[in-house]
Fold each of these.
Amino acid sequence: MGGRDARLTAGRRPALQNRKMSHFSVIGKPIAMVDAAGKTTGAGKYTDDLSVPGMLIGKILHSPYPHARIKRIDTSRARALDGVVAVVTGEDAPKTYGILPVGHDETALAVDKVRYVGDNVACVAAVDEGAAEKALELIDVECEVLPAYFDPEESMKAEADLIHDGKPHNIEKAYHHVFGDPDKAFGEADYVAEGRFIANEVTHAAMEPHSTLASFELDPHTGNLGRLTIWSSTQVPYYLQHKLSLVLEMPMSQIRVIKPLVGGGFGGKSEVIPLEIIAAVAARAARAPVKITYTREEVFWAHRGRPRTIIDLKTGVQKEGRITAVKAKVVQDGGAYCSYGVVTILYSGALLGALYDIPNIQFDGYRVLTNKPACGAMRGHGTVNVRFAFESQLDEISAKLGIDPAEIRRRNLLTPPCITVNGLRVLSYGLPECIEKVVERSGWSQRRGKLGKARGLGIGCSHYVSGAANSIIRSDMPHSTVNIKIDRDGGVVVYTGASEIGQGSDTMTAQIAAEVLGCSLSRVKVVAADTDLTPIDIGSYSSRVTFMAGNATLRAAEEVKKQIASAAAREMNCAVEDLMFRDDAVFQKKGAGKGARATPVETSVSGRVEGQILRGSLQQKRKQEGPKDWMTFEEAVVAAIDFHGALSGTGSYAPPPQARGGKHKGAGVGPSPAYSYSAQVAEVSVDEDTGEVTVHKVWASHDCGRALNPVAVEGQIIGSVWMGLGQALQEEMIWKDGMLMNPGLLEYRSPSSVESPDIEAIIVESIDPEGPFGAKECSEGSLAATIPAIANAIYDAVGVRLHEAPFTPERVLAALRAKKQAKPINMTEGIDPTAPTRFREHGGSLWFRGKGPQRHPLDPARRETTALADGDD
Amino acid sequence: LSLPEFKLLRPRSVEEAVAFLARHSNLRVLAGGTDLIPSMRQKLFEPQYVLDLRHIEELKGIHPRPGNSVEIGALTTLNAIEHSEFLRRHYPVLTEAAATVASPVLRNMGTLGGNICLDTRCLWYNQSLSWRKGCGFCIKKDGDLCHVAPGGTKCWAVFSGDTPPALLCLNAEIEITSPSGTRRTPLREFYTGAGDDYRRLQPDELLTRVFLPEASADYRGVYRKLRIRGSIDYPLAGVAVALKKSNGHVSDARLAITAVNPAPTLVRGARQALEGRAVDELVAEAVGELAAKTAKPLTTSALTPEYRREMIRVFTKRAIIAAAGN
């Protein structure tokens, strides 16, 4: 691996990057989301709001066993029930699929085995929900219960009853990376910190539960089922179209995926979720449209959240605080299927780089299968838990060496442009300014240590990719393509496959198109995420949309602009270079001052041109006047259409080869064309009698390159901090032998508004050379800094170092007791939260085996024993 | 999840309601519905009839009686109790407890009677039908096992209402109406202490009114609730204190705890420990110990039992110091 050399040949620079901020008319302005009205009035349609004639409701039968072989499924009683149209099982669509090409281990419905409590066994399509639910009770499934694995470190020892054939020791994937010479560097370090950190499992808890409506058209010639249309709450319409084609064995061209409004994804909708395939399979069998909407419990079972992670971390430093080497062993409890797992484990290692300057890195990562719902991508994919460990350990080191925690971070900065030891290219780097801003705003230097008893400040930093430089399926295909069409009405229609999931993708697209074309935002209509209409975009995940779809939009708009400009220049008798597009008009740059607006066009607040009827004749009159020094946007458009014929443009984006990373196994994950940076300071107080932690304020700075829409950027920063706060203090999926004890929003406790702190979002703009107008991501990077900032603030407040997240009151109190050597109370099931060794199951409640009262016939343990005893059940 | 099919009965008077109760056996009573409806979706109850009391006007409202005793209709919303100036002045522990129930939206629907009759809760019980299949059911519903106290035959589902401990501290009485008339009983005799059959209420009986006696008026009162979120959550432990002082010394006191036993429970010996004393750290600490001994938390709820018991101790101490106001 080369060091920080000058292997830099930056890609094509967008023409507008040097324009000063004041030159922008739409970019950089706080703008309401283009879809805000429908969402706030209730007029907007989400998938579950949709209905088509003859539509049936689908309900899924889930496994009550964590691991079992299916011997027989009898659906005849269910089929006979009044109102039931079809019942489908694994046999109806046995082809395997998975989001990653290396992880095709899922089937629509279980074919031979079920692998977690909640796994999908069968689906009923019926005239209403009640009938479908009743029918589920009439499906007879005969199972042979198998030993199950719940703890990843236990699962790695498995020799028999493997979760998937061909995955010895239940290890989905293991990676061992060495960059530089870590052993030598540890030997030369003045101080080496070592520790185990555990971050428990969390999930997205998006407000909208997953929903899919599948409908087949009949072929007009044969009467057989023809084209399929799917409306689904998805972040990735194109991948959904692809996987449906695979499982249904239909050409992609016969499948149309439409994404209605989506009520939040956070990664939970960034791959094909079982119900999306199941709805299509059921609709095919029923020969009628089928809609399935998950219950909240089913959302928890579909999961794909952030895995429980065990991190054994070792950091070597010189005495002035310079990091010499980092070694991380990361074990992720991945659940029963691969999902994004291979990518998740790679991110957890790759993004040890690109935040600080670390010359030597060793990473051993294990993605382990267990009999629980599959983990996948979640906001800050793969990086969050390792960042918690790293930033906590850096804080420990700074305390040990007596260096200010903010200062130790400053001493380990990268010097971009550079390529990190693990092959990540960093061009724009706003971290120094991020640290400076939060230190200044929080009064770090003056206030720290002087906040009184049990109150403290903590700092944490983080970063994230602006889209992956390599797509899931490695190819040279553009990651985003955008088409723009402008007609004689002067309306600009942008067709993009990018998926608006609440993050502001449609607004960003409209802003970029409007800025480039110099037209008002209200002229721009965005048609998005409909595979029949919009060109391919690989979806809304890994914070790629602004950077990639934004660049594609910019290029498409530039192309159309070029056509308009050539026609306008002809009309105005000037060179194309002398034209300026702005305020719904095209000006000659030189003549822009001298009476260019002799007939001013009245624009309303919304940007709509008044006097629609007069305009046509006005235009005709002006057209006959001969050459002029300015034209309205519409005149210019009409001139261009008269001259070129149809007016359309297309643009696409593929990350530059220099940004695509190294050549080692697993090098494809981590590289990005640009990284966002974040620094946060949290102020907390701790109740020393109860262990309750109150977060009073979080100062969060984020380098997003350029804030295209500052209010949207602030919203994303605040949202990230808030989600991080949940993982830091409250949110945790609690398991007992494969049973999820809190599969609902009552017991899975995302923060309420009451305990949400004041969050000061600080935007830092480093103007990335390759981002659209210099923009990078702003939706994910901030999350990872919040958890360690809070952990470090707890340490500053009361002197206890928590190595296990979330920092629930019982864990904090147990740590406080241990520190004070007070009377010990076993509050955390014997697990010391300052030095955790293993996972904590729910309470002391053991799954009772053996003696006791007669077990219920449906108790899996009873089935197991009787099956062993007499072989029939 | 769909609601099971049922017939909805909507009486306009208590007589009519009680007549329905006498006529139909497979019936559930709906007051605010905030607990019953989710439970029905989870198929914890699949009644043939639902008796919707919401149109019985005579059971709504707070009616002060001479001498500051008060009669509260069972259908009075928790929101109305929270905002009643009369109750705040004379029975502060009740308004404080009512204000902590769930969230503002749920307090607009939830009623005092509903909070008193609240079904006991357990992580192994308040789950969907398909979830409960996975664990083989439990004693409280459809099964014969207890996952919380393995091998046991008693149900430990925990009582999770916020207002009953406050009412116990106020020596509240309740009026129960049946076709054969009304009876009045102290609230402390209403709960059985079992998790499954948790209250003494015959199938043809209806809780209609709550009475707070004059003797309990103007006690100082504090309610402290352990929860992870600042809103929405059921209590994971709760402590109510009502006490009276004269000349700086406690002249009478009652203490009750909730969410750690199958019933809200008055802490025995609390009065003796406090009576005649000036409240200080030591005294409060001693009462905290008493309360912690009364608490029998198990793994029915989030957080570990040991922690919840410890919080009963801490919260009791704090509540007593706060109520004593020194």
Amino acid sequence: MVETVEKIRIMRGADAGTKRNNFRRGYRMNENRRNWVSSLLILLIIGLLPFGYGGSVVTASTSETPEGFTSIAENARFLLFVDENTGEFQVDDKLLGMRWYSLQPDRRDDLGSKGTSKDALDSLVAYKCLKEDGISTVDLTSYAFAVRAKTTIVEPIENGFEVTYDLVKRKIKTKIQVTIGMDCIRVDVPASGLSDDPAFSIFELSLLPNLCAAGPDQEGYLLTPDGTGSIITMNTGKDWTVDYDETLYGRDRAIDPEQSALHLQRSLLPVFGMKTGENAMLGIVTQGAEIARISAVSSGRNSHFNRIGPVFNVRTVEDVILGKGTDNSIPVRLLERGGFNFTNLQVCYYPLRGGYVEMAAKTAEVLFGERKDASGQEAVPLFLDIHGTIQRTRNILGIPVQVQEPMTSYGQTRKMLESLRDEGVGAVRATLFNWSKESAGSAFSKRSSLFGRLGGESEFHALLDGQESGGYGIFLSTDITRFRTWNPIQRIFEGARRLYNTFVVDTHYRISTFDALTSEEPVFFVKPERLTGLAMQVAAGLKPYDAGIEIGGLANQLYSHYPSTSDKTTVIQTAEVMQQALGILKDSGKPLMGSSPNLYAMRYLDYATDVPVTSSRWLASDYDVPFLQLVLGGHIQYTTPPINLADDPDWMFLKALETGSLLHFSFVWEDPTRLKGTSASDLFSCRFADWEDRAVVMYRKMVETHKAQGFSRIIGHERLAEGVFRSDFASGTSIVVNYGETSVVIDGKRVEPMGFATFD
Amino acid sequence: MIRRTMNRKKIGGPMKRNGVLLIAVLMVFALLPQVASAASYEGYVYDSYRISQPAPNGYLPERAVDLTGLDERGVHEVADFFVADNGEIFLLDTGNLRIVVLSKDFVLLRQFNGFLDANGDAVEFKSLSGIHVGDDGEMTVADTVAQAVYVGDRDGKLKRTITRPNTVLLKEEERFEPLKVLTNDKGLVYVLCRNIYQGAMVFDQDERFLGFYGANKVEASVELLADYLWKTFILTKEQRALMARYVPTEYANFTLDSEQFLYVVSKQRITNMGEVKKLNPLGQNILTWPDPALPANYGDLETYQSIGGTVESDFVDISVDSDGYINILDRERRRIFQYSQNSELLTVFGGPGYQLGSTSMPIAVESQGDKVFVLEKTGVITVYSPTVYGKDIRTAHSLYEAGEYEESSKLWRSLLTQNVNCELAYTYLGKTNLLQGDFASAMDMFQFGFDRNGYSRAFKGYRSQVIRSNLPFILTGLLVLLAGFLLLRKRMRAPAFLRNRRFTDAMWTMIHPAAGFDELNMTKNWSISIAVAVVLLWTLATIMTRQLTGFTFNYNRPEDLNILLLLGTTAGLYFLFTVANWGLSSLTDGEGTFKEICIATAYALIPYVVSRFLLVILSNLIILEEAPFLQWIGLIGILWSFVILLGAIKGVHQFSMGRTVLTLGFTLVGMAAIAFVMLLVYSLVNQIVQFLVTVLKEIFFLFR
């Protein structure tokens, strides 16, 4: 501590001037060199380079150095200025001809914000800390405790600078590294640069809350990754509802399992954005997304700025009630012990011209690389979930007995698929759920025991053998993240643990009251360290079968594991282990399919089912856009959630057309009245016989829609009017979808309510 | 959206005339247009076991309209609203003490800060809590602070003012604080007042008080009875006066349907009488519900335990749409429950939260056509529209009610493909099958729909059909059996165990309890095996009664079978009795040993056990109208066993009859005492365990 104070004193003292001069000499461009010739040269170079060019060209800038700032790094695209007293920075974007601000220059005009909110406008980082009493929390900002106290150190690093905020009074220190790349501004927070004291334990860190911000005089929108993607129009001032604040990749299943009342769409991509005027800023959380939330607010609440940015849950905090249900119940707030739950946080900001469509294109480029455009010749696949058995309580001689009730045998599955082929469905990708004793019971073994009641070995092999001739592909569901047991010993050896030292369970909730259903056989999450071993077992077990793998919870279930106070596996580490497990499955050579996969899983998959076509519809949001599908198109084949289980199947079909999603249904063969009152009662409309004709009609309509050019990826999207959207496809086809109650005429074509029209 | 927001700030304010606002401006404001689609809540309905089952959503949010920026005054703290038939929305803006009238597109049409009296003077509102608008635009408004109800015409001219009536029906201390109001087409004004529990106050067109209408009754309960006895026999009059009095459950709100029937909804759960009532002119509830054998309850039937206790539905408003479907609003879970006129739950929608379709502080519900409007205290109106599923279920129901059975059953069948959990569809298909005379199918459908009345009617037809078509075979079979029995009777030899002396002695006691047990006491020819068999058979009979009683009479959920519990209520009770009796007989010089008491008591149970088996068999063969047969058999079984028990105790202990009866009475007291001690021990152990668990957890958190 003494050393730090001494260093600050020196910085502010005589040496500070010398150091500053060196600083400027090394990194700042000579203002005399900024003339119109060099400007032209830059423009020429930029013009010759493709968008997103590489190389660290350092050349003269046309920009004036803002007062109080120092230019600290420059490349062909950006010129970075920093205020070495505060760490505030500005970036000149030579390509777009505009300047991006870490703190809004007109923030003093915001007379509405007060206290911490006002300080936050002056801060690059804001903290939420738990005080030593273990209950109360406090909001701190870098401005209030480091900038004002003049305990901020700015030091140059390659391509940028590192700012250290020393909140001396609160014993908190944060190092933030800001660098410029060839197409992005990168911000890093290494865990080694973050320290605190038990008196103020940081559990939330809001990073650069003002970089993606715009004042009330600007028009545009904020883009959130909520489900398919949603737009918050700027300056709508919705102070009557709550701000958008949603966790990326879904919540940590080990934390607060009782929070289930909200029916949310997960954010599958660690992305956010802001569009103002012609330009946009895209943010991608490239490290630490597993612990991040995206927070967005439209002008009007606390501040007049429209803002969006990431908040990191750097430590787990959980509120639990000790002795719940007894007279001695007391609420307790638990804080994760030990270090922070990350090694490095990194957010990359990509300035670009355009809106959410261009942001999606950039996201795809950064996250997935080059696109694989479908040739348009391949048959459009139809995706099916087929449920083999369901667990049901049967009354045998008056005694209730748990049995696996067959719903679709292997032979019936084959009939189903062949019938679809006969109806002209070109290709089917069918995932079998509860197809073996292991998959039904979520147990793991090297061998899969097939159900005799579903047809046994012979029928199963006949189903697999018929894939080529039947024009279908089979995927076998397997979930290595969860297991179902009453056995207490198995729980101890295999179950992941919460901070609260109970097991991490996959609780089912009562729809009406949102409280946990305790009558069902509990389902536990597997210790993360067991996942790779289990993946090897599954790969070996499924080797004899010529079928793909449906990866279950590896796609979308994240959880931490706290085996003891000194040991932990964070969600970031769990995601890493899951990726290793996915790598093992991928190496088995089988195609992989996942349901509603998060980004870390998406990269291993060939198919993504249940990709959300709506957002969570927060009241803070204004409308949905198929941002997610615009990103995924050309990288992975994706489907809607099951159409037959949608509130309005026709609406879901239109959504499939609008978003370029493939069709997806969930079926059983037998009489579904057997499902009533079982844990599968949410499959309330799934008999194949009831749905076959309708599914075929929808499939034919989709194929017909893309007939001229072939099915291809979505590349453009526009909201034409209330409830009317146009989607453009790589093939040149455009589809206009009308969800409204009245018909509209587009380019001379009438689009009926709940209808669509194709434009080639 | 930006332009809309900015516009609303620029457009000018209202014009004042004699202090009363009457303004007609067209104004666009923050409308949150959203196309109906996926919901922020999951659909469900309750099955007949009162368990929630997933279902497609019947209603989806169409839009949420924020009225806080309606004009430069904004809307603050709204209290109520009314959606007229022409689509106009009348909103009570209590923050600004005005009535705001909006078009169906939520455009501000006019507003009233008060009404103008005959002299043209302003009668300004002091508070606003309830509003009703007639077909001619006549507004009836409740002003709680002014203790008045105002009736104004469409232009805001005051027509009538209703104040506290001079009546002996109101106590002096009872104030007239109107909360909700209604005016029917005859001009009668109904007023719900704060702290007045006698029902709605009714006033005629001349502001005369006609009386109270349709009060809830005080619900009889064990707690109430205990309290009543305590107050009546223990407390003095002064002490009684200080205690809270029992009053009927207060009405939360009311509404009129198109036929001018009054519907009321109570605030809290009423266990037996139903929270929703449709009142006839005599104030009687004429709303029916599917199974009269079960209580009519509305809202969420599942509850959960919170720190404050059990959390149940808390109703705040009710509305009936033009097709007669009833929407009730639950403030607790922010949901709307839609019912038919037979109290069948069609769909549930809404929920807590800040997503489209979720609400945080809902206070009122209105309907227009098949759309439903929910008002939040903050001034946000959410509009819900029916989905295809929601429309189908309403249409199918309406078609059936209109006698279009064929069309109706087509839709019900379609609904089953949309939702296999839709019990209503099975029931209505069963009804159609019944009308068509297809009894077997009707029985299946009614069983899936858990409609016991329907099942019984179908079974009646089916049984008649079977008997009629098989009568010759049945009669022939019976005659053959009878002849065979008569012919072979002498040659037949009963199995050995039936000829066993101990068995015959036991059977003898069934007919001669006094002499039989006296004889057994002397011969000591007791059979432990028979006693054990009887107790086990009792347990079996209880399990079978629970699980295998005919569907018409069986309300148990087979999956919930708890054999341990049933063992406790049979064998456990048996041992409790024998132990208590043995303990008591030791004190009263009874001669019977524990073994003898056990065996004799088991013998006494034989008629009861036999009657239980008989009941299980018969319940599968008879219909609802024949239920008294079952009751009689059950009663005979109990009485017969009781008589034998008297003989058994008398014979075993060699007591006089008087002493036997007394002993039995004290045995019951002894059983209660033992049960109480066991309960106490259980409670103590439970407390200790809880304490230890809490301490261990505390230690864990201390050292973690």
